[in-house]
């Protein structure tokens, strides 16, 4: 089984991506398909390489375009946006002109201009709707484009028949047909514009990370290759600051390795000869010679990526129901229009039957229904962007209002990544000396002590991985590290221990400092809460939302933060798959995380949030990207979500009521009430305008 990824152009709505999914899943040898309208891409699980060509041909037959890479996708989106804007402006101008002729000029010249201008406007400005509808019909795939095309075409054809005196109804509906195209193009343009703005924010946050591996050859030469080509048995060299690109066993060397990608632990783990290491770990100091135990593409890192893929393919019941409704909605409307036509043909005449069927198609044209959700989401997306929130999946904003359970990672999410200095019993001179020496190390403790310090030390330093630092200057020997490290060097730490015991409830991380076998004192450190973390939890409680911490950190550390925040529960020492299982068992949940080990959970949760400084995979997976570290933006997102849900409900109610009341009238089934195609088109337009104006209220939040 293998993955096949492809970039897809010309998708105009979610129905397009659903249509591609359904069609490709029917291909023999395609196990699964996941197509994203938001990302203009598709991922297919196939059995053989030969299926790639078949998938591409099927996508093209449906009327969509295959794009070569990210660059061509970007160029395509910009090109289509400019084209969409031109079509919209031209369509509006033509609609106004045609409407003017229809309302204020009844001459033969006016009728000619209406027909010519509307013909050009409908089949040029709305050409994409007709091409998609034709190819969809050809491949037995009816979508919103089908109704738009049929409604517009029926109004135009009737008007042409009226023009050539086949009917004697007295009205031309060229302007109604043009207005359908204009309003649908308006919705598409607004949606596309906000989507492009969101992607511009995303480009400033994401960078492509191309990793290389240095392979030790048999002749002891070193060759640099792409990490994707590392195979089982290769010997790789990893220096300080570099990432380990493959799972393997250390042949020689020792180093502290940041494994937070896997276990969420803030502190590095000492790795030495014969220890196993996983791809994704970062060597903080030292150098390792590692023998690969598997291919790079089979590493733990890639397995986590697979978790993200499979989690992303799990659809909620609501999404599944929506897909089913959209699949049969268009066919039902067409069937209803045919029934109305036959009914009135036998009851009265061809002219009445055509008018009634045409009116049903026009009033049922899903302009208002189609605009109800996307236009509200796009305006809300713009609002969120102005408040430093990037919506990668705007539909998640609607789901957020239904959330009653929020999961949080600890380190980097609720707490700061840097440690805070709690207390120390060193003299000012000794403390400054300690901070200067710590500038020579890349350990998290050293970074917290040495930030904003410029060192001019010229002595000899020796960093002992997992234990501490020795520094020799002139005839003085300085030691920094744990109590066990100083004890091993014969330093008495009892007095310093008494100092730490006085503040044991304030912090759990201790750094001892000695000079010439005499303990000068120590520094007590601990991780601290991010600003507004407490306000976030209190705000969620007021809304009836439970907060639970999911962390790979040790029990003591997680419990301390959980009590400080007064959350509803916590889990400690979790592996990525354990986090995933907890989230999977929750029906409606929000997950906020920032690490690679959080990526699968971010993908599976009903709604997910990450930060702009987060791991690359976490950013790509999250529905919301918080551009700054202000946790109050999470509360703001809930507020925006509730507002948008109310507006979408009102939009859908308005559109539904319009269809419910007007379809029977358009069909002529309500005694003493009739709705001609002319008024059906106006009613549809008025419905769309109402939805747009209602959605614009989101700009004021």
From TrEMBL:
What does the UniProt keyword field contain? ATP-binding, Cell membrane, Membrane, Metal-binding, Nucleotide-binding, Phosphoprotein, Translocase, Transmembrane, Transmembrane helix
Family under the similarity heading: Belongs to the cation transport ATPase (P-type) (TC 3.A.3) family. Type IB subfamily.
**Coiled-coil features, chain-numbered ranges:** none
* Membrane topology label: Multi-pass membrane protein
Q: Which PROSITE patterns match?
A: ATPASE_E1_E2, HMA_2
Pfam families in the record, alphabetically?
E1-E2_ATPase, HMA, Hydrolase
Subcellular location per UniProt equals:
Cell membrane; Endomembrane system
| Catalysed transformations (reactions) | Cu(2+)(in) + ATP + H2O = Cu(2+)(out) + ADP + phosphate + H(+)
EC number(s) stated in the UniProt entry for this protein: 7.2.2.9
- The species this protein belongs to is Campylobacter estrildidarum
Q: Which NCBIfam families does this UniProt record tie to the protein?
A: ATPase-IB1_Cu, ATPase-IB_hvy, ATPase_P-type
Q: Which GO terms describe its cellular component?
A: endomembrane system; plasma membrane
Role this protein plays: Probably involved in copper export.
Q: Cite a single GO BP annotation.
A: copper ion homeostasis
Q: What is this protein called?
A: Copper-transporting ATPase
Q: Mark the transmembrane ranges.
A: 87-104, 116-135, 147-164, 170-190, 328-347, 353-380, 652-673, 679-696
């Amino acid at each position: 089984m293998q993955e096949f990824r492809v970039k897809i152009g010309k998708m105009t709505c979610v129905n397009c991506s659903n249509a591609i999914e359904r069609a490709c899943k029917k291909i023999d040898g395609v196990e699964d398909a996941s197509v994203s309208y938001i990302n203009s891409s598709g991922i297919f699980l196939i059995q053989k390489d030969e299926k790639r060509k078949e998938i591409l041909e099927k996508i093209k037959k449906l009327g969509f375009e295959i794009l070569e890479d990210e660059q061509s996708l970007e160029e395509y989106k910009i090109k289509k946006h400019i084209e969409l804007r031109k079509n919209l402006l031209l369509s509006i101008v033509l609609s106004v002109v045609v409407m003017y002729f229809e309302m204020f000029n009844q001459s033969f010249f006016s009728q000619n201009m209406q027909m010519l201008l509307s013909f050009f406007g409908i089949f040029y400005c709305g050409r994409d709707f007709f091409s998609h509808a034709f190819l969809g019909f050809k491949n037995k795939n009816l979508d919103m484009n089908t109704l738009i095309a049929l409604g517009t075409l029926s109004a135009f054809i009737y008007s042409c028949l009226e023009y050539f005196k086949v009917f004697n109804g007295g009205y031309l509906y060229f302007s109604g047909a043009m207005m359908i195209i204009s309003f649908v193009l308006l919705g598409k343009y607004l949606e596309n514009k906000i989507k492009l703005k969101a992607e511009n924010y995303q480009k400033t946050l994401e960078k492509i990370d191309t990793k290389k591996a240095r392979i030790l050859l048999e002749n002891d030469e070193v060759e640099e290759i792409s990490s994707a080509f590392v195979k089982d048995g290769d010997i790789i060299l990893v220096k300080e600051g570099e990432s380990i690109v493959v799972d393997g066993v250390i042949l020689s060397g020792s180093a502290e390795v940041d494994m937070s990608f896997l276990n969420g632990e803030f502190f590095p783990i000492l790795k030495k000869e014969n220890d196993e290491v996983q791809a994704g770990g970062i060597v903080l100091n030292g150098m390792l010679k590692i023998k690969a135990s598997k291919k790079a593409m089979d590493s733990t890192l890639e397995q986590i990526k697979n978790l993200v893929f499979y989690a992303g393919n799990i659809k909620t019941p609501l999404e599944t129901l929506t897909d089913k409704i959209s699949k049969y909605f268009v066919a039902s409307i067409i069937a209803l229009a045919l029934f109305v036509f036959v009914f009135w043909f036998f009851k009265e005449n061809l002219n009445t039957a055509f008018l009634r069927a045409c009116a049903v198609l026009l009033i049922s044209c899903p302009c208002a229904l189609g605009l109800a959700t996307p236009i509200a989401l796009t305006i809300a997306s713009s609002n969120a962007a102005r408040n430093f929130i990037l919506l990668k999946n705007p539909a998640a904003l609607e789901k957020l209002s239904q959330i009653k359970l929020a999961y949080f990672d600890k380190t980097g999410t609720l707490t700061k990544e840097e440690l805070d200095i709690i207390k120390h019993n060193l003299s000012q001179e000794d403390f400054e000396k300690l901070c200067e020496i710590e500038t020579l190390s890349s350990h998290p403790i050293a970074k917290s002590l040495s930030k904003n310090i410029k060192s001019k030390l010229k002595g000899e330093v020796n960093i002992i991985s997992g234990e501490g630092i020795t520094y020799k200057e002139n005839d003085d020997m300085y030691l920094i590290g744990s109590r066990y490290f100083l004890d091993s060097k014969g330093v008495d730490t009892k007095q310093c221990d008494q100092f730490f015991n006085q503040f044991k409830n304030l912090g759990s991380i201790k750094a001892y400092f000695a000079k010439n076998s005499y303990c000068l004192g120590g520094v007590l450190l601990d991780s601290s809460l991010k600003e507004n973390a407490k306000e976030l939890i209190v705000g969620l409680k007021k809304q009836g939302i439970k907060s639970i911490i999911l962390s790979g950190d040790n029990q003591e550390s997680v419990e301390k933060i959980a009590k400080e925040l007064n959350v509803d529960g916590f889990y400690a020492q979790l592996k990525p798959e354990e986090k995933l299982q907890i989230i999977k068992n929750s029906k409606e949940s929000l997950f906020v995380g920032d690490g690679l080990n959080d990526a699968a959970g971010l993908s599976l949760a009903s709604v997910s949030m990450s930060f702009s400084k987060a791991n690359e995979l976490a950013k790509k997976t999250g529905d919301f990207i918080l551009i700054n570290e202000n946790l109050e933006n999470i509360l703001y997102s809930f507020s925006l979500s509730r507002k948008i849900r109310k507006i979408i409900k009102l939009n859908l109610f308005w559109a539904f009521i319009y269809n419910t009341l007007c379809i029977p009238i358009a069909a002529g089934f309500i005694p003493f009430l009739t709705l001609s195609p002319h008024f059906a088109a106006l009613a549809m337009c008025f419905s769309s305008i109402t939805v747009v104006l209602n959605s614009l209220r989101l700009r004021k939040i």
